[in-house]
Amino acid sequence: MIEAKATVRQTAKKFGISKSTVHKDMVERLVQINPELAGEVREVLNVNKQERHIRGGMATKEKYQRRLQACSNNEK
User: Fold this and answer.
1) How much is the pLDDT for 47?
2) What's the CA gap between 75 and 26, in Å, rounded?
3) What is the Cα–Cα distance from 18 to 5, expressed in whole angstroms?
4) Which residues of 5-32 are buried (b: 16+ CB within 10 A; e: fewer)?
5) Tens of pLDDT along 3-62?
6) What was the pLDDT predicted at 10?
7) Which of 35, 36, 49 is nearest to 5 (CA)?
8) CB contact at 8 A, 14 and 7
9) What is the pLDDT of residue 76?
10) What is the pLDDT of residue 74?
């Protein structure tokens, strides 16, 4: 997660577990195991949280661009 600056969703997909499990492991369990590493993970989580609205907006934009393109292709 730290090296790739991965999101919780990306990390969950990579390991085949739920997002809530990833979040709980990173926020609660890792603090008990390795507090220093937990701090680094927390920084990545905070950056991802700050950028989340931007990624959501980009995904919505791409969604509507694909729909527009599909409609344009159907008209031809």
Assistant:
1) 93
2) 49
3) 18
4) ebbbeebbeeeeeeeeebeebbeeebee
5) 999 999 999 999 999 999 999 999 999 999 999 999 999 999 999 888 888 888 888 999
6) 94
7) 49
8) no
9) 62
10) 77
Question: Residue 38 in contact with residue 30, Cβ under 8 Å?
Answer: yes
Residues 24, 38 contacting (CB under 8 angstroms): no
Name the amino acid, one letter, at 36. Answer: E
| Distance of alpha carbon 17 from alpha carbon 28, whole angstroms | 16
- Rounded Cα distance between 23 and 21, Å, is 5
Q: Which residues contact 47 (CB under 8 A, 6 or more apart)?
A: 5
Tokens at 67, concatenated:
């729909």
